[in-house]
Design a protein that fits this description.
Distance between the termini: 30 Å
Order of helices and strands: HHH
Number of strands: 0
Structural class: mainly alpha
Helix content: 55-70%
Number of helices: 3
Length: 52
């Protein structure tokens, strides 16, 4: 369950980053640093811009 929440939050922050919406909380800032786009593209390669 925790893994699902963390993944959902990381993907949500990714979508907001792509819209240039900054993190508003320390959790959002931590998510941006820990689960940045490069990290998420490695974990979910089908989401990579190269695959579109």
């Amino acid at each position: 369950m925790i893994n699902m929440i963390l993944t959902y939050t990381a993907l949500g922050r990714m979508a907001l980053r792509q819209k240039n919406i900054p993190a508003k909380t320390f959790i959002g800032e931590w998510m941006d640093k820990t689960y940045n786009d490069d990290y998420l593209y490695k974990k979910f390669p089908v989401m990579s811009p190269e695959n579109k």
